[in-house]
Specification:
single chain; mainly alpha; Diaminopimelate Epimerase, Chain A, domain 1; two-stranded antiparallel ribbon; about 65% helix; elongated
């Protein structure tokens, strides 16, 4: 399947198309995971349209058709025996058909299992459609005609697809494969889910369940962020009324994923669970992710049809050009804003946006390249290629704007933190004075150390005014610790009043840290794993709890706010670690894996542009292409090991929507018998 994934993605992204390994001589061959194997060079590497037709057949009829081109049939040398032997050797099942074509011998065979879910009439029609194209040496169109016939779809005339030329964008279920954004990501996740779902959870180890849950959380979190951006583009272009259903599904999916992250947080905290509880909670995480996945898939077709970039490419490009101009004009303002921040605050306070301007500028340069490619394709009437380029430009532009927004957002957060810090210092100073005034008897044994910690926090804040968010957090933590000593010493009413006073600052600190961390993860999500995402999701839940209890129970609300702040800080540290490891350990991945979604529209591997863009948009386009290979692997449906560890596009390369999974140990074709058919052409 890897060869098939690469072939589809390569065409969609303008890369060179990779084919499966050549067959040894012309004996029955091993497909090695490919759906199209061309050892005769009949397709000249252009097999993407054939793959798309096979996908469409599977979606419409649930039938998997494999296609093999060789020079001659040998050992055995009769077409039907050769095709049946190849099908048996590759473990094809009842729902799997194999079309084998010997180009030099001008012979072919269609291998069919005795219990295949097709009628003899359907096979007769498919055979006629295949022969008609083979007589004219239309090798690729022969497979397409056979697939369309079995699916009950009229094939294009030879005039539409002359000879071996296969130059149009792949079509899956009537929708152009754009190779980036929500469309490719939804289909890739559906295929991976089918492979993972072959084994019931009852028969899966806890270790494997953990892997599936972690992978599902990362995939769905990326899918939600990508879908939010897709929704924004759709609303801007078509209006909110046309996207109501998708917006509702997205909200439901977001809620399901938040619940899943909440369960993951419980599994990760210090409170242990029994083996049974851990297993049940892990399975629930997977089920919640599947629910979210299905909600997104339910709207995928309608959403893709809504955009119809293949037909609307000129208008979409014109709109994108206007947005590019606006974003480009904004760069100097953002540079000035960051320079102003840099003159007032410490590097630590600005670390989350330190390279945002540089990254935004690099992305805008890539946007211009993609737009130029789209314009060239439109002029050449290659609307499929234009759709790919326009969508790539939109994704790059959206990420560039997010990076600039983060600088503006941090400006506001730091200004607010300064105001809140002054109030927190005043409040803590008063608490320290009140604590000194208390009687220091045996009931207040812990008071001196709490006072010392609060005084140290005040000193830190006063000497570290250039990082008000960190100072606000430090003062808040020390003040909260001091307050715990007063419990039982001061009356409950005073405790509540003090908590209410502290809560405003605590919420401000937590919300500031959450906002900063979430933006950091979102703009670098191609290199951020599930731990950081889990912590920031839990931090968001805790701060919402604090807001809900703000009036009725400020003491408990304060606890939630402090917990949210600590979780957000941990999430930021984990995210920084992931991004650092991704950047230092995956330069090749940044060049190919991270930039897999950009293809020919971005810088090459190892270049400055590649380093900048690889980790940044790897998770945005094509489901973190290449960036996931080090975190998770998927078992090959052919019984081999994961395909994701060494391929040039990585294990997460985008693909057409099929969800197809081949099975070993299928029904044996009785060599030369059964319902297989074929002959000369």
């Amino acid at each position: 399947m890897k060869a098939r994934l690469v072939a589809v993605l390569a065409l969609a992204l303008g890369l060179s198309v990779l084919t499966a390994a050549p067959a040894l001589a012309d004996d029955p061959v091993s497909l090695d995971g490919a759906y199209v194997l061309d050892s005769a060079g009949a397709l000249d590497g252009n097999d993407a349209e054939v793959v798309a037709a096979l996908d469409s057949l599977y979606e419409r009829a649930g039938i998997q058709l494999f296609v093999v081109y060789v020079d001659e049939f040998t050992n055995p040398n009769t077409p039907i025996d050769w095709a049946d032997a190849t099908a048996n050797a590759n473990g094809l099942g009842d729902d799997d058909l194999l079309l084998a074509v010997a180009v030099s011998q001008r012979q072919y065979a269609l291998s069919v299992a005795p219990d295949a879910p097709v009628t003899d009439a359907q096979l007769d029609a498919a055979e006629s459609a295949i022969e008609a194209q083979l007589r004219d040496d239309n090798w690729g169109q022969a497979a397409i005609a056979g697939a369309n016939s079995l699916a009950g779809v009229a094939s294009p005339s030879p005039a539409d697809s002359p000879g071996n030329g296969i130059s149009v964008l792949p079509i899956v279920g009537g929708v152009a494969v754009v190779g980036v954004g929500a469309f490719a990501f939804y289909r890739l996740r559906r295929r991976n889910r089918a492979v993972d779902g072959d084994t019931p959870v009852e028969g899966v180890s806890q270790e494997e369940l953990n892997r599936r849950a972690g992978s599902a959380l990362v995939d769905l979190d990326d899918a939600l962020k990508t879908s939010e951006q897709e929704l924004g583009f759709a609303i801007a272009q078509f209006g909110s009324a046309a996207t109501t259903d998708f917006e509702a599904s997205l909200a439901q999916a977001t809620e399901a994923v938040a619940q899943a992250f909440g369960l993951r947080q419980k599994l990760d905290d210090s409170e242990p669970e029994t083996a049974e509880q851990k297993r049940a909670m892990t399975i629930q995480i997977i089920e919640l992710c599947e629910q979210a996945d299905e909600l997104l898939d339910a709207q995928a077709d309608a959403f893709d049809q809504l955009r119809q970039l293949e037909t609307n490419a000129p208008a979409a490009l014109a709109e994108t050009a206007t947005l590019i101009a606006t974003a480009s004009n904004r760069i100097p303002d953002v540079e000035r804003a960051f320079a102003a921040l840099n003159s007032s605050y410490s590097p630590a306070a600005l670390n989350s946006v330190a390279d945002n301007v540089e990254r935004a500028r690099a992305l805008l340069a890539a946007v211009i390249e993609s737009s130029t490619a789209a314009s060239t394709a439109i002029d050449a009437q290659k609307l499929g290629e234009a759709a790919v380029a326009v969508r790539t430009a939109q994704a790059q532009l959206g990420q560039s704007i997010q990076l600039m927004d983060a600088v503006d957002s941090l400006t506001a957060e730091l200004a607010s933190a300064e105001i809140m810090l002054a109030a927190a210092i005043t409040d803590t100073t008063g608490d320290i004075a009140a604590a000194h005034a208390l009687s220091h008897d045996e009931t207040a044994a812990a008071l001196p150390s709490a006072i010392a910690a609060a005084e140290a926090a005040l000193a830190f804040a006063q000497s570290n005014s250039s990082d008000p968010i960190a100072s606000l957090s430090a003062v808040g933590d020390a003040n909260a610790a001091l307050e715990t000593v007063f419990v039982g010493v001061r009356d409950q009413q005073r405790v509540v009043a003090q908590a209410a006073t502290q809560l405003t600052a605590a919420l401000a600190a937590a919300q500031s840290r959450i906002t900063t961390t979430a933006q950091f993860i979102t703009t670098r999500r191609g290199g951020v794993g599930s731990e950081a995402r889990t912590r920031i999701s839990e931090a968001d839940r805790q701060v919402k709890q604090a807001l809900a209890l703000q009036s009725s129970d400020p003491v408990t609300a304060l606890t939630h706010a402090r917990q949210a702040d600590q979780l957000a800080a941990t999430a930021y540290e984990l995210a920084q670690r992931d991004v650092s490891q991704f950047s230092s350990g995956g330069s090749a991945g940044a060049g190919m894996g991270g930039l897999g979604g950009l293809g020919g529209f971005s810088g090459g591997s190892g270049s400055t542009g590649g380093d900048l863009l690889g980790g940044l948009i790897g998770g945005l386009i094509g489901g973190s292409l290449g960036s996931r290979s080090s975190r998770s692997s998927r078992s090959s449906p052919w019984g081999g090991s994961s395909w994701g560890g060494s391929g040039s596009s990585g294990s997460r390369s985008g693909s057409s929507r099929s969800g197809r999974s081949s099975r070993s140990g299928g029904t044996s074709r009785r060599s030369g018998g059964g319902r297989s058919r074929g002959g000369r052409f």
